[in-house]
Amino acid sequence: MHEILLVEDSGSIAALYQTYLKDEPVSVSHVTRVDEALAYLQRRIPALILLDLNLPDQHGGSILREVHDHGWTVPIVVITGNGSVESAVEAMRLGAYDFLIKPTEKERLLTTVRNAIHFFTLNSQLKEFRKQKHKEGICGFIGASPIMQGVYHTLEQAASSTASVFVVGESGTGKELAAQALHSLSEREQQPFIAVNCAAIPKDLFESELFGHSKGAFTGASKDRLGAVRSANKGTLFLDEICEMPLDLQTKLLRFLQTGIVTPVGTDKGTQVDVRIVCATNRDPWVEVDEGNFREDLYYRLHVIPVMLPPLRQRGDDILLLARRFLKQFGREEGKSFAGFSAEAERMLKQYPWPGNVRQLQNVIRQICVMHPGGKIAKEQVPRLPSRTRAAVNSETTQPAQPTLTAMDTTPAPAPVEIPEPNEPIASLDPPSQGLNGSLAQMERNWIEQAIEQCDGNITKAAGLLDVSPSTIYRKLQSWQ
């Protein structure tokens, strides 16, 4: 038995619809106002909403917006006497499943209701399947977005191998966390995990730090030192910021990778070592090779299994998932109780490009937990964040421009990676070249296909033009296939 919420202010029309549906395996709950419908949805989510747009307290479109804002996966069939194309397009833009015009014939209503409930059933099954298949994180990673599912799959597949892994990602995306995940998921889990930050070691101490030295090898060498490579024997050696390694050390590292033998500074005696190499950089390694800063043969030796960590701005709802986790974690550490974020605050968090990625988000949420007593976080309580140029957001620079502090922009966010310059014109969507002929479903498809074509295949930009979520477009594309 499926539950249907009928939102209709006319008692006679509501009774007629209930008569049409009396032989269907459904139960109908009838309300006449928007506030009654919203109160109902706070208690439970039905399998279908039949919605009249002209209601006594306010326009029925507010229900569409509320369902969209909460992410509720309930199909809504709009039934109204205003049968204009504009109303149909507006309803579909807000997420309506279908659009019927009064007076609605019995068979037309029944067909639409059956199709919508079938959609709801399949969507629920798919959602449950995704819950079982998709992970919200592994080994410290937090994120359920499709792009992170690919990262988890790569880490799980690569963990059992001894092949070198090359992790590339912007600062703050979790490159060391990826290395630790590879170690934890492998058979080397009980063995040492040694991390070396190649950017933090003075050049004259680099060889000693990496390969060790014997007592008396140089001034100050008062005792033998194992070095990072030998300390990681049987385990995992993580070389962070590998492109910062001096060229002469790159030659010795390449020799070690070829032979597996370490020769400490001050001795000619080599030692066989078994380590899994994981390296990382926030630069483009090919650019470093082209500029002569990184050996090409070493790149090929290390770049066996690539792992690309996406910037936070490309991870969609993972931003909110991370923010809520951090709010709970830091609130507990501060001895405070937080009830999450308001819808406006969540919208602001999602729209900000997060040039510092997860690390920046983590620090912002910690600041919120320190500075506020608890409860629900409103948009006014979200700190002012640095505004960044397109270049600064798309790649970390060695000498970034001094940021200026501005309030978060509450206008719709641009595409995740390509942030338009201030003078760049905002694209608009022309009417479909096919015109407004045909069924509503065909019109909707024409709009979506033209938006995708106008945006050169960029789904996120197309969604921005249509003012819908990218997931809506992906779902439509799947259904057409």
From TrEMBL:
Coiled-coil spans in chain: none
Gene3D superfamilies according to UniProt: 1.10.8.60, 3.40.50.2300, Homeodomain-like (1.10.10.60), P-loop containing nucleotide triphosphate hydrolases (3.40.50.300)
Family matches, as SUPFAM superfamilies: CheY-like, Homeodomain-like, P-loop containing nucleoside triphosphate hydrolases
Keywords for the protein's UniProt record, in alphabetical order: ATP-binding, DNA-binding, Nucleotide-binding, Phosphoprotein, Transcription, Transcription regulation
Domain Sigma-54 factor interaction: 141-370
Residues recorded with modification 4-aspartylphosphate: D52
Domain annotation Response regulatory: ranges: 3-117
Name of the molecule in the record: Sigma-54 dependent transcriptional regulator
